Amino acid sequence: MFKNVGIIGYGAVVPRMRIKLEEIARVWGKDGAKVSAGLNVREKAVAAFDEDSCTLAVEAARIAVRNHDAARIGALFAGSESKPYAVKPTASIVADAIGASPDLTAADLEFACKAGTVGMQACMAMVASGMVDYGLAIGSDTAQGRPADALEFSSGSGAAAFLIGKNPIVELIDTFSFTTDTPDFWRRQHAEFPQHAGRFTGEPAYFKHVLSAAKGLFEKTGTTAKDYDFAVFHQPNGKFPLRAGEMLGFEKEKIKQGLITPFIGNTYSAASMIGLASVLDVVKPGQKIFVVSYGSGAGSDALAFEAKKGIEAARQPEAVFDLIGRDKVYVDYAVYAKHRRKLKTL
Amino acid sequence: MRHALPLIWRKSLERYRLIGCSCENCGTDYFPPRKVCPKCRRKGKIAPKQMPTEGKVYSYSLVHAAPSGFEFEAPYHVAIVELANGVRLLTQIVDSDAAKVKIGAPVKMVFRKIFEDDCEGVIAYGYKFKAV
Ligand SMILES: [Zn+2]
Q: What is the ipTM of this complex?
């Protein structure tokens, strides 16, 4: 059904500024080392004053389409929960900025942290059916956390884009999704920051959906963890994905390459997608990749891929681990509050 | 600061993608795009053209007293960037250490928010440059 359909280009971006969790903890009178160790997150990426989920989406999209004719993109989906406009698509701005418009369909998608992988599924189905030549799926967020809230310690900024087409460099083997109405995290219309249900976000939310989607895909494809070389999970912190992986039988070594949250925080819609981009930076032809996203509300998309011959030539110019390590600037809480407009007058 | 919405929209191709123009008669590139080639006048033939997205700093200044709408970004660099085809444009330089912003420094285009009317207004996006 998905024969010869998959990823033909990809790109990830991370803003330049970082704030250490210890610095956030200092402001709120918490033990920084303890918070950092508890979440397995050292620092998070901070989008600048003139960046938002739209500018990050454009930057990631430009990298993903750099070797392809953007005019062949027939569908573009921008996934985010931190849209600059409540009404007015980011997708049409991206389409114009990369030269994909006007002959395409486009929309913004929202499903907390998994809107990006839903876009990938939609693009793959549209390419497989012959409805479009190329589809572009983006996950992009400048994640919001209320000052002093637990989420503020992990909510990061970043984006990843995947160009979907035929003759892929990373072929889709199959996909399986699991969705239920679970109110673990939400943000009401006009509310500035999301609310969450504390400890409720673990077992009945993240783990139930990630494990169910993963097991569903194992069953559908007749595979187990042993059949895959890499596993990427949604990563609201640095601990959940390791635990989910262990429960499914993945060794830590298979998860490390796609575990990015410890260095940039939870980038929401981009989190599992930046993890996948990091795996594509190193995967060899013939190796298999298992990806499970998670979006509060709640649902998970599991996707299984196999890397193909063209992968080496199609790697992004700057690997995710280079983006994380190179050219970063640490800011204190005051500068962070200015750039993220947490001051009332901004 | 209220900006004219039609102006923001009309300029989106040049601001998003650095689409300028070229005179097919004499081969000169222009950015921002022109309606008439000043060299060829009536003989000129103007067509849209993608400008190179890389160049070097021709001249720069560090802005401390920013105009309204940019106060919170100060101090910031503005520069005249000379693109690979020789065309020069005025732009903000972002994401770059001050030590890297020098005459002749190589720069590349990035996509950023330029300004917004107010918290309920339209957002103008477009090019800025960063040192590479
Ligand atoms: Zn001319």
A: 0.95
Write down the H helix ranges in chain A.
Answer: 21-27, 32-39, 53-64, 90-98, 115-129, 208-221, 240-248, 252-256, 261-264, 271-280, 311-314, 320-325, 333-339
Where do you find CATH 2.40.50 in chain B? 52-132
Number of CB pairs, chain A paired with chain B, less than 8 A apart:
45
How many residues comprise chain A?
Answer: 346
Q: Give the pLDDT confidence of A39-62 residue by residue, as tens digits.
A: 999 999 999 999 999 999 999 999
CATH number for the domain running over B52-132? 2.40.50
**Pair A139, A115: CB distance under 8 Å:** yes
> Ligand 1 being an ion, which residues bring their Cβ within 5 A of it?
B 23, 25-26, 37, 39-40, 44
Residue A336 pLDDT = 96
Mean pLDDT of A232-243: 97
Q: Which of residues 78-117 of A touch B (CB under 8 A)?
A: 84-85, 93, 96-99
**What are the boundaries of each domain within chain A?**
5-339
Contact by Cβ (8 Å): A217, A203: no
Question: Could B113 and A50 be called an inter-chain contact, meaning their C-beta atoms sit closer than 8 Å?
Answer: yes
Whether residue A198 has pLDDT greater than 80: no
> Which positions of A are annotated as active-site residues?
81, 113, 234
Domain A5-339 falls in which CATH fold?
A: Peroxisomal Thiolase; Chain A, domain 1 (3.40.47)
